[in-house]
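Field log, afternoon session.

UNIT: design team B
ACTIVITY: writing a sequence onto a fixed backbone
BACKBONE:
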């Protein structure tokens, strides 16, 4: 449509959405004009839909008017011109209102919703179910990890030897029985009887398995770890369903649990424990080899790609790996590297704050989200600032890659740093750090990685995060006090 036609459509829309005073933000996507409205009760939806150029309306986080790809940009521009305040002297149009934090939040929420739809694939749904098994265990992992760190610090200082001895069982008891909890949660997640899943998985950690020989080798209590427990509980779920279909209801309460525990337990002893043990050992060796021989590249890739993996739902595959490493080696060397993704976001957010010096709305969002980002809670910054802006999300990932590379190089040089639990990130990870040279050395390496991620994310965003046009758009003076 011509500019005159676009302006005419915008003029027709404006009074039907409550007038200029009712509009808080204006944006558009490929086909829809998206309005942030103060009061939706003022909208005349029927009259809007009666306009020939309007293809429909949608009420979501913003009020959306469907105009089609050929018209939406022109009508949006026409509406923005109508909303421009008069100039200071002659009534000439002033600058357009800058996009606000509400605009970014809406865009981020739409991206998140689209991601949830894309992630609803069989593989990603399976990974999500695996995450549902391990996520409930995180509080215990954190608590036990911090107690283990306290015990190690006291032991290194030579203080309170009696207390150090007592803290050993407190910090290690849960990890020695984690297979039972994994089995319980697995059966619960996949529709079996939770206690039967735990019972079958408990075979793996029973001390008496040392007397059993499988594949020519005596088994070791705990062999196979969480991988074996996961497999044993899944088998128990299927055995329970199969038995329940065949057994008369009168005998179900006796036969089904017996068959499930008997067959599941024997399968765990004479198959799953050995196979899962080999897999777990391979995971540990692979992580150790990766840092020892390719720390720089591994840190660069893992730190830079972790947030995109999160958005794709693929990060959930790492949870059993983290847990396996903690069970085998006492800590996971992967988590400190992945935590650098959050450092890149923090550095990026500071650069955005300084570059958008006239946009009070977005700067206020960054001020409120930054403390959480420093503590490793990145969603407010990701979905509220960097991802909706586009380029800053990429430059934040560059910061994460730089921080990950720092941690990786330290590991390659013999100063590998690990985490005794999963869940925390950012500054919250410091109490959970572990390494070959003690807590202080591990904290120095991890702190160096955070600082590298902050600086790299800041510099990448400052120099490459915005085009001139984007800076001009987001620094425009808003008519209703939305900018500084």
């Amino acid at each position: 449509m011509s500019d005159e036609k676009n302006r005419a459509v915008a003029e027709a829309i404006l009074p039907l959405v409550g007038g200029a005073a009712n509009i808080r933000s204006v944006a558009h996507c490929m086909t829809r004009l998206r309005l942030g409205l103060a009061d939706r009760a003022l909208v005349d939806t029927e009259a809007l839909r009666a306009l020939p150029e309007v293809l429909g309306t949608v009420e979501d986080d913003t009020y959306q008017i469907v105009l089609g790809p050929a018209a939406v940009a022109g009508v949006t521009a026409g509406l923005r011109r109508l909303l421009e305040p008069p100039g200071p002297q002659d009534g000439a149009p002033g600058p357009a209102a800058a996009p606000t934090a509400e605009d970014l939040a809406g865009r981020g929420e739409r991206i998140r919703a689209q991601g949830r739809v894309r992630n609803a694939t069989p593989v990603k749904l399976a990974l999500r179910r695996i995450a549902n098994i391990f996520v409930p265990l995180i509080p215990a992992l954190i608590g036990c990890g911090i107690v283990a760190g306290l015990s190690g610090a006291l032991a290194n200082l030579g203080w309170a030897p009696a207390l150090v001895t007592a803290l050993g069982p407190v910090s290690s008891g849960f990890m020695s029985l984690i297979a039972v909890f994994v089995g319980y949660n697995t059966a619960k997640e996949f529709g079996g009887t939770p206690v039967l899943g735990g019972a079958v998985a408990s075979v793996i950690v029973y001390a008496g398995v040392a007397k059993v020989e499988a594949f020519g080798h005596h088994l070791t209590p705990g062999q196979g770890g969480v991988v074996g427990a996961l497999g044993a509980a899944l088998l128990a779920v299927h055995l329970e369903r199969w038995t329940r279909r065949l057994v008369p209801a009168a005998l179900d309460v006796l036969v089904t649990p017996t068959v499930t525990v008997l067959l599941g337990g024997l399968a765990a002893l004479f198959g799953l424990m050995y196979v899962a043990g080999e897999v777990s050992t391979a995971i540990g060796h692979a992580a150790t080899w990766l840092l020892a021989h390719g720390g720089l590249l591994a840190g660069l890739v893992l730190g830079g790609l972790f947030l995109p993996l999160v958005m794709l739902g693929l990060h959930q595959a790492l949870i059993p790996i983290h847990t396996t490493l903690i069970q085998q080696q006492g800590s996971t060397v992967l988590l400190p590297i992945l935590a650098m993704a959050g450092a890149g976001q923090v550095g990026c957010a500071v650069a955005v704050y300084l570059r958008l010096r006239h946009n009070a709305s977005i700067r206020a969002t960054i001020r409120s989200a930054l403390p959480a980002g420093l503590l490793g809670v990145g969603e407010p910054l990701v979905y509220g600032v960097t991802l909706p802006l586009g380029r800053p999300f990429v430059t934040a990932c560059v910061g994460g890659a730089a921080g990950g590379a720092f941690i990786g190089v330290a590991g390659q040089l013999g100063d590998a740093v690990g985490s005794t639990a999963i869940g925390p990130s950012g500054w919250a990870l410091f109490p959970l750090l572990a390494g070959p040279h003690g807590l202080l050395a591990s904290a120095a390496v991890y702190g160096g990685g955070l600082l590298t991620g902050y600086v790299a994310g800041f510099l990448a965003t400052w120099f490459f995060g915005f085009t001139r046009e984007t800076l001009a758009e987001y620094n425009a003076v808003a008519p209703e006090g939305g900018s500084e």
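LOG NOTE: The CA atoms of residues 193 and 429 lie 35 Å apart.
NEXT ACTIVITY: expression trials, pending approval
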